[in-house]
Design a protein that fits this description.
Four copies of one chain form a homotetramer.
Chain A: H1 21-36, H2 43-50, H3 54-60, H4 64-90, H5 94-110, H6 119-127, H7 132-155, H8 166-187, H9 191-211
The structure holds a DNA duplex (21 and 21 nucleotides).
Chain lengths: 212, 212, 212, 212
DNA sequence: CATGAATGAGTATTCATTCAT
DNA sequence: AATGAATGAATACTCATTCAT
C-alpha cells in the first residue's frame, strides 16, 4: 500500500495566520468591490493592496472577471457559517431568527459608517445581466439566503394563517433587507432601515394574530 | 423652500421634435448609466451614441460627474409627471395608487427583459458615498418618492390602526419596490417581485382589518 | 448656389514639408515593420519614433492591425509611381524593364546593409494566413506587381516561343526576386541575388533564341 | 571540416515512443514557430503544448533564443534524411531529383492548406539580421540545401552548356522554391508555385538543348 | 529533473479631458 | 457652439524569466 501523501493545502511553509496569494487576492477584491464597486476597482489597486504582482494574479485567475466570480463563490461559502449561523445561535424561535438576521445587517451597515451595502445586492445591481457567470452566482446567493430563511419560516408554519407560503414570506424578508440597506446607505442613516424592519415586524405580528 | 429655477428651453430655433445637444447628452447618459452603470459607461460611448463630439460635451458640462448629477436632476424633474401622475390618474383610492405605482415598476422591468432596474437604486448602490453631489441627489429622489407615497397614505390615515406612521409605511413600500426590482433583475423573473408585492398587499389588508 | 468649400486636406495650417500625424504613423510603422517585423515592433516604439502619443494613434486607427493594413495599402499606392515607373523610365525595351526592376531591388537591399528585405514578402511570410485583411492586401500587392511585369512581357510576346504565357513568366520573375532578396538578406551578400538574376537573364536569352 | 559531435540520446530509461522533455520542447517550438512565427509564439504556449513547465524549459535551454537556434540545428540535422533522401530515392537522374525535391515542397504546402511555408525561409525573413546566432544557422541551412542540389547538378554537368555553374543553378532552384512557396502561401493557391516550377523546368530543358 | 508560484517590465488599448481652429 | 485632433495617465493583461522546494 502506498503511503498517503500528507495532502498539504498547497504551499509547504506558511506561517500560521498568513494567507496564500490566492486568498489575499480574493479577500482584497471582495473588500474593494464592496467599497467601490466592480468597475471602479482597478486591478492595479487590488494588486497593490494585496501585495501581489500582476503576473501572479493571472497565474491564479484568468482575468478580473474570474476574480469577481471567485468572490461570489466565496460569499456563497460564507453564507451559512458567517451569516446564518449567528442568527441561529441567538435564538431557537424561527421568527426571532429572521429579525436576528436583519439585526446582523443593521450592525453591518452601521459598522462601516454606511460605506458598504450588501455585497451581493451591490454587485447584482451594478452588473445587471452583463456578466452571466456572475449573475448566476448572485442568483445562487439569493437562493441560498431565501432557502435558509424559508426553512426557518417553514418550522413556524402553524403560527401563520393557513395557506401562507413560507418561501414568499422569505422573499419579502429579503426585499425588505435589500431595500432597507440601500436606503440606509443612500441616506447615511439607519432610520429607513429601521422603519422598514419595524413594518415587517408589524406584519409578522398581524400574521400571527390572524392565524389564531 | 428653494425657489424653482425657471428652466429656460435654451436656443430659440430648433425644429419641432429635434433635441438640443444638451438634451441628447442627458438622455443618452441616462440610458447608458441605467443599462451599464456609471463606471462601465465611457464618455466616448455617450458621445458616439448621442452624436456629439468631445468638445461640445465639455462646453455644456464640466465633466462626466456633472453629467451624472444632470441625469439625477432630470430624474427628479420627471418623478412627478412621469412616475406619480399615472398612478394618481388610475384611481382616487390612496392604497390603490400605491399598488398602481408598484405596477408601473413591474411593467418597467418586464418591458426591458430585465435589463434595467430602478435608475435611482442602481446609482445609489454603485456610487455609494463616493460622489457626494450625486448621493445628495439620489437622496432627494428617494425623499420625493417617499413624500409622494406618504402623502397618499396620509389621506387614508383613518383606514389604518391609530398611530400608524404614513411615512414609515411609505418607506416600507419603497424598500419593497427596490428589493423587488433587484431580485427580479437578478433572477430574470417577475416572481420575486410579485411575491414581495403580494405580501405587502396582504400587510395593507391586515392593517385595514386591524383598524376597524 | 452654395460656394464650394475649399476642401483642404484636413488641417489648415501645416508648414510645407511637415507630415500629418496619420502620415507619420504610417511611415514610421512601415519602416519599423520592415526592419523588425510586425510582431517585434511595439506600438510604443512606433509612438516614440513618430512623436505621437498613444491616444492619437487610436484616433486614426482602430488598432495595430489597421496600422498594418494601412501600411500595405500605402505600399500598393506606391507600387506604380515608386517601383514600376523608374524601370519604365529607364528603357522602352520590355525585357530591359524587367531587369531594371530587379536592379531596383538589388539597390534596395544593398542600400541598407542587408537590413531590409522586400516589405511585402517579409509581411507575407511573417503573417501567413493569420491576418486575413493583411493577407488580402499582400495578395493584391503581388497581383499588381505581377500585372505590371506581365504587361511588359505581353508587349514582347513575339520575341518568345509561341505559347509562352507572359503572366507565368512574370510570376517566375517575382519568385526569383523574392527568393533572391531572401537569400541576400540571410547571407548578407548580393551573390545569391546576382546568381539567381543571372540565371533568369540566361533563361530569357534562351527563350528569345528559341523563338527565332 | 568539423568533426560531427556524437549526439548521445540522453537518458537511458524511456519507454519506446515516448519523447524526452527536451525533444518535446524542440518539436513543439518548431511547429509553433512555423505556424505563427518566432515573435508571435509565446513561451507559455510552447510550455502548454509541450506539456512542460517553465522551470524545466530553463533547465534545458538558457532562453527562448536558444530554443530558436535549437530548432534551426534540428532542421539542419533533418535536411539530409528527411528532405534530400526521398528525392534521391525517387530517381537516379540528377535533374529529376531537383524536380522531385520541388515536388516535396509542393506536397508540404498543399498538405497544410497553405498554413505553413518553408521553415527556414520564414525565419530568415522574420528575424533578418537581428539574431546573429539564428541567422548563421539559417545561412548554414541554405548552404547545405544549395550544396546538396549543386552536388546533383555537378553530376549532370555535361548536359548543360560549357561554363554553366552548378552552384549558381542550385541557388536559382532555391530562389524559385522559396519565392514559389511564398506566393503559394500568400495566394492560398498552388498556381504560382506551379507556374514558377514550370518555367524553371523549361529553363532546364532549354539548357540541355543548348548543350548538345 | 520536475513543479508551479513569483517577478516586474512590457503589451496593446482606453480613459476622461483639453485644445486650437 | 461645433469640430476633431491632441494629451498622457491609466486600464487589463502577457511577457520571458527566476526561484524555492
Amino acid at each position: 500500500m502506498e503511503p498517503v501523501k500528507p495532502r498539504r493545502e498547497r504551499p509547504a511553509s506558511r506561517a500560521k495566520g498568513e494567507r496564500s496569494t490566492r486568498e489575499r487576492l480574493l479577500e482584497t477584491s471582495a473588500r474593494l468591490f464592496l467599497d467601490q464597486g466592480y468597475h471602479a476597482t482597478g486591478v492595479s489597486t487590488i494588486l497593490a493592496e494585496a501585495g501581489v504582482n500582476a503576473g501572479s494574479l493571472y497565474h491564479f485567475f484568468p482575468g478580473k472577471e474570474e476574480l469577481l466570480t471567485g468572490v461570489l463563490e466565496w460569499y456563497l461559502d460564507q453564507l451559512g457559517p458567517v451569516v446564518m449561523a449567528p442568527a441561529e445561535a441567538r435564538t431557537r424561535d424561527p421568527v426571532g431568527r429572521v429579525f436576528a438576521l436583519l439585526d446582523f445587517y443593521r450592525a453591518w451597515i452601521a459598522g462601516s459608517d454606511f460605506g458598504r451595502g450588501c455585497p451581493i445586492g451591490n454587485l447584482a445591481l451594478e452588473l445587471g445581466t452583463a456578466y452571466p457567470a456572475a449573475r448566476a452566482l448572485v442568483e445562487r446567493n439569493f437562493e441560498a439566503w431565501t432557502d435558509a430563511v424559508a426553512g426557518w419560516l417553514e418550522e413556524a408554519r402553524e403560527r401563520f394563517p393557513r395557506g401562507t407560503d413560507p418561501r414568499a414570506l422569505a422573499v419579502f424578508v429579503l426585499t425588505t433587507m435589500e431595500g432597507g440597506v440601500m436606503l440606509a446607505r443612500a441616506r447615511r442613516s439607519l432610520e429607513p432601515f429601521d422603519a422598514a424592519v419595524a413594518r415587517l415586524r408589524d406584519y409578522f405580528r398581524l400574521l400571527e394574530r390572524a392565524a389564531s
